[in-house]
């Protein structure tokens, strides 16, 4: 895919992706759902690499929602194993490339081995700033907002918009410019609701395991041709 179609001066600063369709992709191939999740993890490696090459500064990936605990325990266990494998396989590369990992969500309820691996990744990448990679794990936007409100109440504060934003997991980050949802569904699924107030939303019927560089470029090109007015006129 030729990246020259993209205008480097009009890149979205913050791209968020709901990585949807892994299970259905696998089912269509008469494979178990975990096969789709494993293939989907390969796209995570790709999208981080491609975002670096394109020049995206903030990338948020919805890995595991608060609602995903309703899934079969075998699938949940596999998703946790995939996260560990991703960190084991990619951490040195991420450090070298200047990627900082940031977690969105409450990881305190995850298996201890997963928590330790995440904390090691956070510490290893904390000084990087070429790309901020937000990984949403046990994340729900309503819960995030309630957490911020309760913190403000506890501290007896009346907050400005900026102060409230800095109580969210995306503290000191710009709002989402572009949300991408592959997989054919057209909903937000409790993801970054506050941060996406003025995001452009790009839906695709392509399942996440098939969402490769050309699909990402198409989404960003679509974004660059949107007329973003933020409630005003141009």
Brief summary:
Helix content is 42%, strand content 15%.
What would your notes on this structure say?
This protein is an alpha/beta fold. 42% of the residues lie in helices and 15% in strands. The chain contains 7 helices and 6 strands; from the N terminus they run E-H-H-E-H-E-H-E-H-H-E-E-H. The chain is globular, with a radius of gyration of 18 Å. The mean pLDDT is 95.
The helix/strand class is alpha/beta
- Total beta-strand segments: 6
SSE succession? EHHEHEHEHHEEH
Runs in which pLDDT lies below 50 for 5 or more consecutive residues are: none
Largest sheet: 6 strands, parallel
Summarize this structure as a short list of keywords or feature phrases.
about 230 residues; alpha/beta
Question: How do the strands and helices of this protein lay out in sequence?
Answer:
Layout: E1 14-18, H1 22-28, H2 33-54, E2 58-65, H3 73-97, E3 99-104, H4 112-125, E4 131-139, H5 141-154, H6 161-165, E5 178-181, E6 200-203, H7 213-224
Parallel strand pairs: 1-2, 1-5, 2-4, 3-4, 5-6
Helix pairs in contact: 1-2, 2-3, 3-4
